[in-house]
Design a protein that fits this description.
81% helix, 5 helices, mainly alpha
């Protein structure tokens, strides 16, 4: 794959991770941020995931969805709002990686179909 496209995908991943982290702290449940994360996730899935990285990406995306449902509200007892912030960050990370996982899964289905 072209190194420029790989670099664009890497930059999208770093921007998405930073945005998910800071938005989880300062702007939880913001529709515009969710839309931006979705677009970045599509770019990541299309440009920076090689065929050998698809399965680890899918496993990581599933883990984020599962961890996102764990519930960190008890942390609010330790430090007011900490559990809510952790939940928001994980939810934003899941919203970043879900489109990347979908794009990668579709690419893998195409690869499998073309091999037969």
């Amino acid at each position: 794959m072209n190194k420029t496209l790989i670099m664009i995908g890497f930059i999208a991943a770093m921007v998405g991770l930073a945005l998910a982290f800071f938005a989880g702290i300062f702007a939880p449940s913001n529709a515009i941020i969710i839309l931006v994360l979705m677009v970045l996730g599509i770019i990541i899935g299309a440009l920076s995931v090689s065929r050998k990285e698809i399965v680890p990406l899918l496993v990581a995306a599933i883990a984020l969805v599962v961890v996102g449902t764990a519930g960190y509200e008890p942390l609010n007892n330790m430090l007011s709002g900490l559990g809510d912030v952790v939940n928001a960050i994980i939810n934003y990370l899941a919203r970043l990686m879900a489109p990347a996982a979908v794009v990668s899964a579709v690419r893998e289905l195409i690869y499998v179909a073309l091999e037969k």
